[in-house]
Automatic annotation (TrEMBL):
Participates in chromosomal partition during cell division. May act via the formation of a condensin-like complex containing Smc and ScpB that pull DNA away from mid-cell into both cell halves. HAMAP family: ScpA. Component of a cohesin-like complex composed of ScpA, ScpB and the Smc homodimer, in which ScpA and ScpB bind to the head domain of Smc. The presence of the three proteins is required for the association of the complex with DNA. Belongs to the ScpA family. Keywords: Cell cycle, Cell division, Chromosome partition, Cytoplasm. One of its GO terms (cellular component) is cytoplasm. This is Segregation and condensation protein A. Its main location: cytoplasm. Pfam families: SMC_ScpA. It comes from Domibacillus iocasae. GO terms for biological process: cell division; chromosome segregation; DNA replication. It is found in: Cytoplasm.
Amino acid sequence: MEYKVKIDSFEGPLDLLLHLIQQLEIDIYDIPAAEITNQYLAYVNTMQQLELDVASEYLVMAATLIAMKSRSLLPDHSSEEDDYIEEEDPRDELARRLIEYKKYKEAAGRLHELEEERTKLYSRPPADQLFSSNAEGPLNVSIFDMLGAFQKMTRRKKLAVPPKATVRREELSVEKRMNVLKEKLAASKEPIRFDDLFDSSERNELVVSFLAILELMKQNEIIVSQKGNFADLYVTVGGNET
C-alpha cells in the first residue's frame, strides 16, 4: 500500500540546510561537513520513508554534501607539496549560497507581512496556507520541525530504520484517521503532545497518522505549537474549529 503526498511547503534544500544550521546553532561560515551531512540525510531519509514527493534538487544537494564530507575526511597534503595549488573550500561556496538565500527569504517574509497588513483593509478571506502562524507559542512550526518530531518519535518506537514491512489486508485511510484525530483533540481540554497522537507501532499506521496531521494543518483545523527549539510539539484544535 502506497501513500503519495506532495507538500508544497518544501522550499528546497537550502531551506532545509538553513533550518538545520539554526537548530544546531552552527556558524554558517564554518559548517561542519560531517554533522550537517548526517542531519540532512536523516531528514531526506525520513521524507522517503514517508513517501513524500522529494524533489530531485534535494538529492543533488545530498550528493554535494556527501562529496564535501568525504573531502573533509581526506588527509591534508597542502604542506607537503611546494607546487600545491589550494582549491576553494566547497563550504565557502555553500555558505555564500545560504547567505544569499537567507537574504531573499527574509525579504520575502517582510513582503508577506506587508501583504498581510494590506489585506486587513479588505473584507476577503486569508489565503490558504499549509502551516498557519496563528499558534500561541513563540515559535512557528515548520514542515522540518514536523519531520524532526516524527524522527524522534520513530526512534523512541525503535522504528528509525524499520524492518521489512508485513503486508496487511486492512485498508488504512488518511481521511478516517483525520476524523479520529479531530475527535480525540476535541475531547481533550488540554493540548495533546505530538507523540501521543500515534497509538500504533506499525510503520504504515504511523505514516498515515503523520499524513493526517499534515492534512489537518493544511486545512487549518489544528494548531501545532512549540515552546522552544528541541521542545516537544503540542497539538490543539484550532482554525476552522473555533
